[in-house]
Design brief:
- By secondary structure, this protein is an alpha/beta fold.
- The chain has 2 domains: 3-254 and 454-474, Aldehyde Dehydrogenase, Chain A, domain 1 (3-Layer(aba) Sandwich); 258-435, Aldehyde Dehydrogenase, Chain A, domain 2, CATH 3.40.309.
- Helices cover 39% and strands 21% of the residues.
- It has 15 helices and 24 strands.
- It has a 7-stranded mixed sheet, sandwiched between helices. A 6-stranded mixed sheet has the order 9-8-7-10-11-23, sandwiched between helices. The chain has a 3-stranded antiparallel sheet with strand order 5-6-24.
- Helix 14 links the parallel strand 20 and strand 21.
- The N and C termini lie far apart (78 Å).
């Protein structure tokens, strides 16, 4: 395949062809070619990192107000391209048009929150018994490598680098091979349009076959001081181990197996709506999707009846159709995983109340009961439109079921008693918890992330400033007295 047919990558302020193989970027709804994209090699990645390294001192030396202006301009440019971005998210990422509109509308806020972070990069004056002016100061790390996912490519890519860049770091981004345009090249276009200095932001695209060598260079190159990764726990473990061995900082936002706990005093209407949205938004392809619904046994029958009736209204199909909220699964490998988990549950005694089958790239919205803890659907991240319902006899049992997982990203608790809800939230082992809401929640300025195998570090808020800067101790001496043997006579 000719490089002339391919979308170029962006390195040192220039659009360039990679030395690797051109690859097809497919529309998951119809398997048509959305774009042909240039593929990078290790050498291409190395050149992008060198450009970022060379540009970083100048970028960091800019007044913080100037860096903030760039971030605000990028936010404004995203808003001018809303309709174009929506179309690309639908056709490249298989996003239902409503989800794509949300994502394109959310993205500007990420950059405005990042612009605000430059005013929070503060230090401290600490006491000194030696009479020094003793200061704790933060400075940027240098080059930050970013590896972004395909499910919310515009949103999650922006969150992965915006704060780091605002604080004075330069960026080398490797987007997912499933969404190299909306998760990467679109941002290169925006940076170029905003007039960002060359080398501050670089995008390196590569095929699945070249991910290993290109990704290894991004992680292992000594100029890269931190890795910002959003993706699966399996890949995150590898990246974390590799970067940790090289004493590099990591911010890892990984998988989830989130629970919605419906207590016995819950507003059932609210519970049904939270469960439906949390499970089926973007056909479950969200790290914080509801993947286990835990309902008190006294209301389980009524909840299940109403939930099945509500879910039965959801339609799958063309993501451009506003009435078909269940879009395509991203690829055949992921679809096979969903099918395998559902069939495993069926074989082990689960009852399928609704759905349970695939149709081309689509999987029916599915509800199942009689789910037990030995089933794959209970243990493994599903990342599909499947709702397993479990029952509990008490708050304690519901919490125990929710915590019986290697993951700990988010949770939802439905109850009419807010004090009770907060008490449950305090005991659920997750990085985030939401009373009277779904587990699917986000805001541009909050510290987003999980515990256990759901991640390490936080994107957003003050913790992101700590992640993407280095703390230094700087003093000014005002008359320290050295021991006599070291002093001129």
């Amino acid at each position: 395949m000719s490089q002339s047919d391919a979308r170029q990558m962006y390195s040192n302020g220039t659009w360039v062809n990679g030395e690797g193989a051109v690859f097809d970027d497919l529309n998951p709804a119809n398997a048509g070619i959305f774009a042909r994209v240039t593929g990078a090699t290790r050498a291409d990645m190395r050149r992008a990192i060198e450009a970022a390294h060379a540009a970083q001192p100048g970028w960091a030396a800019l007044p913080h107000t100037e860096r903030a202006r760039y971030l605000l301009k990028i936010a404004d440019l995203i808003e001018t391209r809303q309709q174009d971005l929506i179309a690309q998210l639908v056709d490249e990422a298989g996003s239902w048009v409503g989800k794509a509109a949300f994502e394109a509308g959310y993205a500007p806020g990420i950059f405005r929150a990042a612009a605000a972070s430059v005013y929070q990069m503060t230090g401290e004056i600490v006491p000194s018994e030696l009479g020094k002016v003793s200061m704790l100061m933060r400075q940027p790390l240098g080059v930050v490598g970013v590896i972004s996912p395909w499910n919310f490519p515009l949103l999650l890519t922006g969150r992965g680098f915006a704060t780091a860049m605002a604080l004075g770091n330069t960026i080398v981004l490797k987007p997912s091979e499933e969404s190299p345009v909306t998760g990467g090249l679109v941002y290169a276009e925006l940076m170029e349009q905003a007039g960002l200095p060359p080398g501050v932001f670089n995008v390196v695209t590569c095929s699945r076959e070249q991910v290993s060598e290109v990704g290894d260079e991004l992680i292992s190159n000594p100029h890269v001081k931190a890795i910002s990764f959003t993706g699966s726990t399996a890949v995150g473990r590898i990246i974390g181990a590799r970067a940790g061995g090289l004493l590099k900082k990591c911010c890892l936002e990984l998988g989830g197996k989130d629970a919605l706990l419906v207590l016995d005093d819950a507003d059932l209407g609210l519970a049904v709506n939270a469960a439906t949205f949390g499970t089926f938004m973007h056909q479950g392809q969200i790290c914080m999707s509801v993947e286990r619904i835990i309902v008190h046994e006294s209301i389980a029958a009524e909840f299940t009846r109403r939930f099945v009736a509500n879910v039965s209204k959801l339609r799958y199909g063309d993501p451009w159709d506003m009435g078909k909220v269940i879009g395509p699964i991203i690829n055949a490998k992921q679809l096979a995983k969903i099918v395998d988990q559902v069939e495993d549950a069926r074989a082990r005694g689960a009852r399928i109340l609704l759905g349970g089958a695939s149709h081309g790239p689509y999987f029916e919205p599915t509800v199942m009961t009689d789910v037990t803890r030995d089933m794959k659907i209970f243990r493994e991240e599903n990342f599909g439109p499947v709702a397993p319902i479990l029952t509990a006899t008490s708050d304690d049992e519901a919490i125990a079921i929710a915590n019986d997982s290697e993951y700990g990203l988010s949770a939802g608790i439905i109850t009419r008693n807010e004090v009770r809800g907060l008490a449950v939230a305090a005991r659920v082992e997750t990085g985030m918890a939401h009373v009277n809401d779904s587990s699917v929640n986000d805001e541009p300025h909050i510290p987003f992330g999980g515990i256990k195998n759901s991640g390490l570090g936080r994107h957003g808020g003050r913790p992101a400033i700590e992640t993407f800067t280095e703390l230094r101790w700087v003093t000014v001496d005002r008359g320290r007295h050295y021991p006599p043997p070291f002093v001129e006579s």
